[in-house]
Amino acid sequence: MSATIKFGTSGWRAIIADEFTFGNVRRAVAAIADHVLSRNPKPTLLIGHDTRFLSDEFSLTAAGILSQRGVGVLLCDSAAPTPTIAYEIRRRKLDGAINFTASHNPAQYHGLKFSGPDGGPALPEVTKDIEARAAKLAEPERAETPANLERVSVREQYLKRLGELIHFDSIRKANLRIVYDALHGCGSGYLDRALSDHDIPSHTIRANRDVLFDGTGPDVVESNLAPLLRALREQEANVGLATDGDADRFGILDADGTWFQPNHILALVYDYLLETRGWAPSKGKALPAARSVATSHLMDAVARSYGTTVYQTPVGFKYIGQLIEQDKIALGGEESAGLTIRGHVPEKDGILAGLLVAEMIAARRATLAEQLRDLFRRVGGEFWPMRINLHLPSDVQARTVERLKGEFAEFLGRRVQRADRTDGLKLEFEDGSWVLLRLSGTEPLLRVYTEAATQDASRKLGEQTRAWIFGAAAGGTAA
């Protein structure tokens, strides 16, 4: 069955054997080939993949189609993290990469990401061109895998780069006890190897390939990290680190086992880079940060404390990647556990993020909870963001989308200070709290994001918004 090839926030994703079939993969890859050939008559692309079911086979299929259409091909010799592929594009000065991964999605999904020459996720103008080309293509015939296909290792050069970005000596001197959960993804052999290469002992779990991902999926949300919590306690570790299926997202457990939400990690790491690492100059302004519209305003508070600001982007790391590429920011991050820093790839890197957190704990000799309390004190307030994912009936979703087109002077009995339509509808209130409603770009969901000065207030705002969506909230009127 020919499917509509549609790129969401981060690539094209679909259920295996439903829409993600070999025929549709051939069509998508042919469209990518035609796109890169329109820009360079002799392009070369890297092909990578994660540990999912049929990942190897999809990669070989792509190699055949690309070669048949006159595109040079380099094939990763094993499952490789998304940030590693991004780094290799830049190092080899390639025309881009096709990466077969569905990232954190459940096991029944597969996906395809296309990255351009800068190593970052393809921008909308590129993916729209690929979509248009795919829509006009008939399903290509099977193509033989080239006999002379060049397989390359992307591990060593990336690990070398991590050695330049991370202060491993700080982690080693602090005798930090680290547990790492690879969630059966392709971070295995990367984050743990980076530590061992620098004589830092660690304990790794779920490093083997399991295409069903324990039945829970390779997402770094709290509910999936029970094995990491057990290992953390058994090892009496100082921190638990996790990466998702393609290792572009991070998950963090504090020493007491508390799951630390990415929003707080982003602000802490940004503050650490400026304050402890000395990225804030003594004269002039510190470099700004960048965050998506759905990410905590705690990053803004940190920026203000150093006399700088933040760039707000739509959801999608490609927008943050542009700011990294332009050397405008010290750190860019999204609440969905994506982070990168100045001088690194314009792509999410969960391996780098986990190692930076370990370094931060080692250098400051304080737990994450202690550091967060101190940060709240220094910026003069607390920030507690939350997110609700709603699977809505089609009629409710359609009605909600229509209602959100209105003008809002008041929402849920609160006066709206600012309405922001950067991505979805974000309503900011006079007390600094806010709510954002937006459709997911990767899953059939409506996401509700809230932030307030306490967890209870943020939770209440989310519950009231949910009720408003289903038409039952008092005071939920557009004005």
Please describe what this structure looks like.
The protein has 479 residues and is α/β, with parallel strands linked by helices. It folds into 3 domains: 12-153, Alpha-D-Glucose-1,6-Bisphosphate, subunit A, domain 3 (Alpha-D-Glucose-1,6-Bisphosphate, Chain A, domain 3), CATH 3.40.120.10; 157-379, Alpha-D-Glucose-1,6-Bisphosphate, subunit A, domain 3 (Alpha-D-Glucose-1,6-Bisphosphate, Chain A, domain 3, 3-Layer(aba) Sandwich); 384-469, TATA-Binding Protein. It is 36% helix and 20% strand. The protein contains 15 helices and 21 strands. The protein has helices at 22-37, 55-68, 82-92, 124-136, 155-165, 168-173, 191-197, 226-235, 262-275, 298-305, 317-325, 350-364, 368-379, 394-403, 455-469, and strands at residues 12-15, 44-49, 72-76, 97-100, 109-115, 150-152, 178-181, 202-205, 239-243, 250-253, 259-260, 289-292, 310-313, 331-334, 338-341, 384-390, 410-411, 414-420, 425-429, 434-439, 446-452. The strands form 4 sheets. It has a 6-stranded mixed beta sheet, sandwiched between helices. The protein has a 6-stranded antiparallel beta sheet with strand order 16-21-20-19-18-17, covered by helices on one side. The protein has a 5-stranded mixed beta sheet with strand order 8-7-9-10-11, sandwiched between helices. A hairpin with a 2-residue loop joins strand 17 and strand 18 (414-420). Helix 1 (22-37) crosses helix 4 (124-136) and helix 9 (262-275) packs across helix 13 (368-379). The longest helix is centred in the N-terminal third of the chain and has 16 residues, at 22-37. The termini are far apart. Mean pLDDT is 95; it is low at 472-479.
